[in-house]
Design goal:
The structure holds 2 protein chains of 2 kinds. By secondary structure, chain A is of the alpha+beta class. Helix content of chain A is 48%, strand content 12%. The longest helix of chain A has 13 residues. Chain B has 2 domains: 124 residues, no CATH class; 88 residues, no CATH class. The chains are: A alpha+beta, B mainly alpha.
């Protein structure tokens, strides 16, 4: 089984709770610097947990989706990451 | 072949049940933005695809049985169940769960065919969510003012505890002090923060307030 860092787990959980998001959307929901979020997203993409699609008209270029593997690996739990 | 009223009623019934199941599936897939989802062309394409496979199933069943109300009800249900399951004719019973031999991967193929359409719906919703965001960015040309609004939002959320407010303010300070983020990225981050923390209605109020202030200034 692939080892995931705590940051990668947070990103997976955010995507599983909120659905497909842009990197800045993940950042504001998890309150983690966008650069770290991007690193985690790229790492998760390499591991096959996440994939992205280009947004033709959006402010940010890509939207990140959970793959089946990512959805299975996303940490469970009912609480919202931002406490709302 | 001449069409009777019963045949047409069976077709309509199959179509209606299939459309209903498809709408329920879209509702489950996009619970928070169902109305916006149904405004996208992709959602109607998904619905049409489901109706088509149900009618195909009705055609197959009508060859085996009579075309009547029973086949009309069973067809969409059968089509939905079959297209969401991997059917295997032979299984390897020595490796539980490992399907070998002849496998009709209808479910897998249907999922692969539908997934890009669902992704397209998500992309459309993601872009449509940004209309108010774009207006906010336009109305607030100053990054500092936008940061001020974001800070105000963080402090005014009633459900936030003191420690959570401190955490959110620290996040905003990190963004503000970042050397790697461009000015545009910072502005989008603040706007997204306001949207997430205070919601779309608050953004609309900010836009209206700013618009009114600009009009007063212009008079």
């Amino acid at each position: 089984m692939t080892e995931l860092s705590s940051l990668e787990r947070i990103v997976l959980k955010t995507l599983s709770q909120a659905g497909p998001l842009t990197p800045l959307e993940v950042a504001v929901r998890s309150l983690i610097h966008p650069d770290s979020i991007l690193d985690a997203l790229f790492s998760l993409m390499d591991k096959g947990f996440v994939y992205r699609r280009e947004r033709p008209k959006g402010i940010e270029r890509y939207l990140y989706f959970l793959s089946e593997r990512g959805a299975a690996a996303a940490p469970e739990g009912g609480y919202e990451l931002d406490g709302r | 072949m001449s069409w009777t009223v019963v045949d047409l009623a069976a077709l309509l019934l199959t179509g209606a049940i299939s459309a209903l199941l498809s709408i329920i599936e879209l509702r489950i897939s996009f619970p928070k933005s169902f109305t916006s989802t149904m405004r996208t062309g992709w959602a109607w394409l998904i619905l049409s695809a489901n109706v088509v496979i149900s009618l195909l199933m009705l055609f197959i069943l009508s060859l085996l049985f009579e075309l009547n109300a029973y086949t009309a009800v069973i067809s969409p249900l059968a089509a939905f169940i079959l297209s969401r399951t991997d059917l295997s004719i032979l299984r390897n019973f020595t490796h539980i769960g490992d399907i070998k031999g002849f496998t009709i991967g209808i479910g897998g193929a249907w999922f692969k065919a539908m997934k890009p359409l669902y992704d397209r719906v998500s992309l459309s919703l993601s872009v449509s969510r940004e209309k108010s965001l774009r207006t906010l960015l336009y109305r607030y040309p100053s990054t500092e003012e936008l940061l001020g609004e974001a800070r105000r939002c963080a402090s005014e959320v009633p459900s936030y505890t003191r420690s959570h407010i401190d955490e959110t303010l620290s996040f905003l300070n990190q963004i503000s002090a970042s050397d790697t983020l461009t000015e545009a990225a910072k502005r989008v981050a603040y706007a997204r923060f306001i949207l997430h923390t205070a919601g779309e209605d608050h953004i609309r109020r900010l836009i209206e307030r700013r618009g009114a202030a600009e009009r007063e200034g212009g008079e």
